[in-house]
Design a protein that fits this description.
- By secondary structure, the chain is an alpha/beta fold.
- Among the domains are: 159 residues, no CATH class; 92 residues, Rossmann fold (3-Layer(aba) Sandwich).
- The chain has ten helices and 15 strands.
- Helix 9 links the parallel strand 13 and strand 14.
- The longest helix has 17 residues.
Length: 361
C-alpha cells in the first residue's frame, strides 16, 4: 500500500444485525427504570439556546466513533457557510466553569484544562469554535456573547445523555464492531442507557461500517422493536496516511511502537498494519489516558527494546504528548465518512430549521 492513500479501518463485521431482547435481571431492570425516571424529570425542564443545536452521542461507554463523527459534522456545517461552535463537557479537564478551547484558529488551552478531545477538535477544525463546560447551556450562552462570528449552530459533543440542554436534532452513533453491547447496562454491560433510549434519536449511524458488513438501514430496522422510527445511515472510518509530527509521511515497512489510549485500541493497531507499517509492539492504555511520567517511561523503554523508529499514536493521544516528551512521535489520523444519503437527509432537516447556509440558498 502506498503512503499517500487512506485506508478503511476494519472492524469485525457482524452478521445480520439483530438487537438482543431487553434484559430481565433485577439490576438491569432497576437501572433501566432509573434512566426512564431521569428522562421524565428533564422532559419540559431542558433549557434551550436561541440557535439550533445538533447533538451527536452514543449509548456506549466509549468506542462508538463519536469524535470523528463530530469533526465531520462540524466541518460540513462550516463548509455550508455557517458559523459553527462545538460544545463539549471537557472530560477530565482541571478546573470548572466555561472555557473557550478554540475560536477557529487552533487550540488555546492544553488538554489538562480543556480535555483531550476538545483540544483535538480545535486543532483539526479551522474556522470552528470549541467551548467546554459541564453546563452546556451556560457554555452556549457564553459562546453567543463572546465569540466572533456569533455561532449560528451548535454541535453538542457527546450530547445524547445530556438532557439538560434542548436540541433540535439528535444523532446517535452505534459502533459496527459491537452495535448493541449485548443490550446490557452498566455495571453488567457497557451501555449508558437502555436501547429503548434510541427512540429519542432523529437518526442513527453505524460507525466503522464496511462495504461487506451491515449498513445503516439494517441498524434502523434492528432498533424498530425498541421504538426507533427514524432513518439509519452507514459511516465508514478512514485512516489517513501515518505521518511524523512534522508532517513527513511514514513509509510502508517503517518499524513503530503503536500506543493508544482509546476505548477500542485494536482498531488502531489494525489500521497501522493495514498501511504496511511494521508494528513491533502494541501498548494499550485506558481511554482518555493522561500519560503520566511512568507511561512515558514505558514508551521510551519499548522504543529502545524494539529498535523502532517512532512511537505511533492516535490524534487524541498526540495532543497530550506534544511538548512533554522527546520521543519521535508519529500520528495515524482517522476521519468519519458518512454515506451521501446522510448529508442529503441532514440538508433537508437543516433547511427546515432555517439554516440555509450556502448549500440551501
Amino acid at each position: 500500500m502506498t503512503a499517500d492513500r487512506a485506508t478503511t479501518v476494519e472492524t469485525p463485521a457482524p452478521g445480520r444485525l439483530a438487537a438482543p431482547p431487553p434484559p430481565r435481571s433485577p439490576w438491569q431492570l432497576f437501572y433501566g427504570g432509573a434512566h426512564r425516571l431521569r428522562r421524565a424529570w428533564y422532559r419540559g425542564r431542558a433549557r434551550r439556546l436561541p440557535v439550533p443545536v445538533v447533538s451527536v452521542g452514543n449509548l456506549h461507554w466509549g468506542g462508538a466513533g463519536k469524535t470523528p463523527l463530530v469533526a465531520a459534522l462540524a466541518a460540513w456545517l462550516r463548509d455550508r457557510g455557517l458559523a459553527v461552535c462545538v460544545l463539549s463537557r471537557g472530560y477530565r479537564r482541571r478546573g470548572g466553569g466555561v472555557a473557550v478551547v478554540g475560536a477557529g484558529g487552533g487550540p488555546l488551552l492544553p488538554p489538562s484544562r480543556a480535555g483531550d478531545e476538545p483540544v483535538q477538535l480545535a486543532g483539526e477544525l479551522p474556522g470552528v469554535a470549541v467551548v467546554v463546560g459541564a453546563d452546556r447551556h451556560r457554555a452556549g450562552r457564553h459562546a453567543l456573547a463572546r465569540l466572533e462570528p456569533r455561532p449560528e449552530v451548535f454541535v453538542l459533543d457527546d450530547g445524547f445523555s445530556h438532557l439538560a440542554l434542548g436540541r433540535d436534532l439528535d444523532l446517535l452513533a452505534f459502533p459496527a464492531a459491537d452495535p448493541f453491547a449485548g443490550g446490557r447496562l452498566f455495571p453488567g454491560g457497557s451501555l449508558r442507557e437502555p436501547l429503548a433510549a434510541a427512540a429519542r434519536a432523529d437518526a442513527v449511524l453505524l460507525t466503522g461500517a464496511t462495504e461487506s458488513g451491515p449498513g445503516g438501514a439494517e441498524l434502523a430496522v434492528a432498533l424498530r422493536p425498541y421504538g426507533f422510527a427514524g432513518p439509519g445511515f452507514a459511516s465508514a472510518t478512514r485512516a489517513e496516511p501515518a505521518r511524523r509530527i512534522n508532517g513527513e509521511p511514514l513509509a510502508p515497512g517503517t518499524r513503530v511502537v503503536a500506543a493508544a489510549g482509546i476505548a477500542r485500541p485494536e482498531t488502531f493497531f489494525a489500521a497501522a498494519r493495514g498501511q504496511g507499517l511494521e508494528v513491533a509492539r502494541e501498548i494499550a492504555f485506558p481511554d482518555h489516558h493522561g500519560y503520566p511520567p511512568k507511561s512515558l517511561e514505558v514508551l521510551a523503554r519499548a522504543l529502545a527494546e524494539t529498535g523502532a523508529e517512532a512511537v505511533l499514536v492516535t490524534a487524541k493521544d498526540r495532543v497530550k504528548l506534544l511538548g512533554r516528551t522527546d520521543l519521535p512521535l508519529a500520528e495515524l489520523p482517522v476521519r468519519a465518512e458518512p454515506e451521501p444519503a446522510f448529508w442529503e437527509w441532514l440538508d433537508a432537516r437543516l433547511d427546515a430549521l432555517g439554516l440555509a447556509g450556502e448549500a440551501g440558498s
